[in-house]
Amino acid sequence: MHDGLGSWLQSRRVTSPEKTALIVDDGRRVSYRELADDGDRLTTLLEEGGIRPGDRVAYLGENSPEFLVSLFACARLGAVFVPVNTRLAPPEMLHVLGDSRARALIHDPEFAERLAPLVSALGIPLVVETGAGATGGSPVPSGAIAGTGLDDPVAIVYTSGTTGRAKGAVLTHGNLTWASINSIVDYDLVSTDVALMISPLFHVAALGMGALPILLKGGTLVLEKRFDAARALQLIERHGVTMLSGVPTTFQLMADDPAWAATDLSSLTKLTCGGSAVPTRILRAFENRGLSFSQGYGMTEAAPGVTALPAGRTLDKQGSVGVPHFFTRVRITDGGGTAATPGAVGEIEIAGPNVFPGYLGLPDSSRAAFTDDGWFRTGDLGHLDADGFLFLSGRLKDLIISGGENIYPAEIENALSGIPGITAAAVIGVPDDRWGEVPLAVVTVADDADVDTEVVRAHLDGRVARYKIPKRVVVVDELPRTASGKVRTAELRIRYGAPASPLS
Question: How many CB atoms lie within 10 A of CB 467?
Fold first, then answer.
């Protein structure tokens, strides 16, 4: 009996067998029946290879049918799927494979040489290369399939590790199921939706809020191995794409592409964006094409959605990350368990069936991550306005204390996004002999823009308190980001000599 993801493909094979589940390789279509059959074959191969309920199966590869087949095969076996970020360096991959105690590894052929010494060092018993023969074996599972419940683990997704070693967030069948339902409800997903997947599935945002909700609803995924703005525009027009998810850089590159104005985007009805705020220039570029964003806030530990900003509120609630997803709860506290007064900045805490139970093998960290009454402490700062919309102020560890005043980087970053020519911004605190620390802005700018410290300071003067205005502005080619599009502020702090945060 499967109450989790292990039943999804079997049910789709009955309810919509000939419906196109995936579009890959420049137009090849994979039906739900074919996807379920491939899942059966891989389930058999893993079972015959000794994989049992609770065993961890790692996967290293780009977006492909095999990625999803592997996830669902693990779910059916009661095994635990461990997606590995393809951008990790070998020592980081070694940590993920070793920490998860992977007993099987499925990988794309292009990673074989890089993985060989890691497999040898860890003694991983079963290694499967995707491609011909990867789903060999009898077409129907042998029957020794364990039942699963919603509270059973189905995946271990490693956090981006911006500070210290990455931790494995254990996600249950229920976490990913409820995250999918949240997306279906809040984004009005329908079975006729066609979603272009340009973000990597090893990142939980693409998986939990993109691929899985669409498959649960019976829609179609257009899988791309990597993002290219010109190609994305072509695919939207060619396949009548209705849904597109990404980070601000994704949409910026599309709007700046030479083909932008001539591409037919009339099929698009749903645009979702996370990672950081969308610059006003990009919002306007899409609004001018009749397209609005649903911006949101989330994290691996919430599988990943926490809040969503309805598309119709993008401009009047600009700067907000929205309201809680339908089955998720958000509160603001003073860090000591007391609810903050309305409008006051405090720590964001979340609860709901999409929130994970804890970190793999780290009981102390898991306990510390939750309050006594069971709310997850995000480590993020924010406030709720009178309408219940959430506004982010930054990370606790990124809080800048200048002359005794608290400065929240997100507030300054939002103000910077309104300056013509600035395409992205991050604010950190740097040492100052007089004030202890002061804000430093690191920005990227458009090719034809003339942006410097004086331009920024003049624009912000009168818009924010003077102690919040960056004392210096550094222009860079690009900001360091995680796979989810979040700026690696820890890297910027090291690069520009910022002190260790007293709250880190």
Answer: 15
∠ at Cα 241 (240, 246), nearest 5°? Answer: 160
Number of domains, the chain: 2
Q: Could you tell me whether strands 472-475 and 422-432 are parallel, antiparallel, or unpaired per DSSP bridges?
A: unpaired
Residue ranges making up the domain that contains 437: 406-495
Tell me how far the alpha carbon of residue 138 is from its chain's centroid. Answer: 36
**Most confident of the following: 19-33, 331-345, 431-445, 480-494:** 19-33
Q: Is residue 379 left, alpha or beta, with left meaning phi > 0 and alpha meaning psi from -120 to 50?
A: left
- Give the model confidence (pLDDT) of 143-156 as tens digits: 556 678 999 999 99
Nearest to 128 by CA among 100, 101, 154, 102: 102
Using CA atoms, how far residue 166 sits from 163, 170, 217, 302, 495, in Å, is: 8, 13, 32, 16, 21
- The sign of the dihedral angle between the CA atoms of 32, 35, 41, 42 is negative
CA atoms lying within 13 Å on the CB side of residue 371: 21
pLDDT, one tens digit per residue, over 298-317 is 999 999 999 999 988 887 88
Q: At what angle do helices 248-256 and 229-239 cross, to 10 degrees?
A: 80
The DSSP code for 45 is H
**Residue 458 CB coordination number (10 Å):** 11
pTM for this structure? 0.84
CATH code where residue 449 lies: 3.30.300.30
Return phi, psi of residue 184, to 5°. -60, -45
CATH number of residue 21's parent domain: 3.40.50.12780
- In whole angstroms, what is the distance from residue 314 CA to residue 309 CA? 7
Q: Hey, what's the torsion of the CAs at 219, 220, 226, 231, to 10 degrees? A: -120
Please list, in sequence order, all residues whose beta carbon lies within 8 angstroms of the beta carbon of residue 418, skipping any fewer than 6 positions away.
Answer: 280, 459
Asked which of 160, 181, 202 is the last residue of a domain, the reply is 181
As beta bridge partners, residue 347 has: 333, 381
